[in-house]
Amino acid sequence: MGSSYATLDLSQEWGYYTSWDSALDSESPKDVQNSGAYIFRPSRPDQKLQTVKASSATFHNTSGVIEVRIEYGEPWIQSTYRMIPDNPYLEVEYTVGPIPVGDGRGKEIVTRFSSPIKSSGTFYTDSNGRDFMQRVKNYRPTWDLNVFEPVAGNYYPVNAAIYVEDNSTKEALTVVTDRTQGGASLQDGSIELMVHRRTLADDNRGVSEPMNETDGGVTAYPPYGNATRYGEGLVIRGKHRILVGGAGGATLARSVMDQFFAEPLVFVGSSTKKEALRFQMTGFTGVVKSLPPNIMLITRKRLTDETSSVPTIQFLIRVGHQYGLGEDEALSTPAQVDLADCLPGYKITKVEELTLSANRNYDAWAKSRLDWTGEEAPMSRGSSSVRDDRTIIEVKPLDIRTFRIAVRS
User: Fold this and answer.
1) Among 164, 334, 363, 189, which residue's Cα sits nearest to residue 253?
2) What is the reported pLDDT for 5?
3) How far apart (Å, rounded) are the C-alpha atoms in residues 170 and 328?
C-alpha cells in the first residue's frame, strides 16, 4: 500500500487462537488456568494463528473512493478496505461474529498485518492515548523473564495505536484502533490485534462465568436459575486505520489517532410537522482560529448558567499536547495557545489553572506535593504561568493543562 509518505508491501490475515480449557488441555491437575474474561491463554502456549482463507473480493470505485469487500471461508468474518482521496491511511472496516463454538472450543479472533520492516523484535503501544511504551518480544526491562507463554506473554493493551519501525530508516507500519484491544508483534514487521473473543470456561478471576456473551441474554442466576446463556454470539464491527511512512511510527500515529479516538457524534432526528425546523444555531465553532497542529482542545465545558449560585459565567478549558519528546522533528516542541481563542464571543476576566482532574488550584497543589528525590523530568514545570491579563500559555510535549475561566459577554 502507499500513503503520502511511502510505499510498503503489506498483507493482512484473519484467524483465531483456540482458548485454553483445562478440561480439554491440561496435562496436570495443577494446570487449571483457563482463558477467560481476564486471562488470554491459547490452548497451546506456542500455538500458531489458525488463519481463515479469503473466498471472494468485490471491487467498487465510486467518486474516487476505492472500496474492496472481502468475504472469507468462515461466514462470520467480513472486511471492507477503503482508500479515500487525500487521506494518508487505508481504512479497514471489519465485522466479526457470531463466533462459532459448536466444536466445544472458545476462540480468540485476531487480525494480523505483515510487512518486510526490520523491527528487531520491538514494537510500541500507547499508554492510554498518551506516551508510547516500547515493548520487546520475550523481554521485561526490570526482571529476567522465563518464557512460558510465548504468544499471550507478548500481548499488551492497545488503547489507540500500535506500531513497528526500522530504527535505522524510520520506515514504519502503524495501526490506529477505534477502541481498546490486545496487540502484539510476534514476528518482525508484523502487528496483530485481537478484536473479539468467546470462551467456554471460567478463568476464576472473579466473574464466575465464561466470557460467552450472547444476544439473547442469560437465565436467572442461582438460587433462582442456572445462569445459562441463550441466543447467538455477539457480532462486533470496528475500524482499523493503517499508515505507513518513513517519519517514524509515533509521528504517523499522532497525526490521526486523537481525531479517530474522539470522533464527532452525529445525531439524527425527525419531526411529525411538515414545516422546516427552526434551529437556534445553524453552526458552531469552539475556537476563534485553528489551534497549533500539535495541540488538541480536549474539554470546553460551561460550568455555570442562569441557575447557578456563582454570578459569573465560567468555562472549563483543557488543552493537551499531542506529541511526545523526540517523536517528530517539528511537532515535538512546546506550543503556545491563547485561551481567548477557545472562547469566541467572550471577554476573559479571570483565569485559574487547575490540576488535571479540575478539583484543585494548580499552584496550591504544586506547593503541597511530595518532593521526590531523583532526576527532574526534562519538560517539567513549577508554578502556573497564567495570569488574568496573560492568557497566552505554553503547552509542553504530552502536557495537559486545565483552566477555570471566568468571562463576560
Assistant:
1) 164
2) 46
3) 11
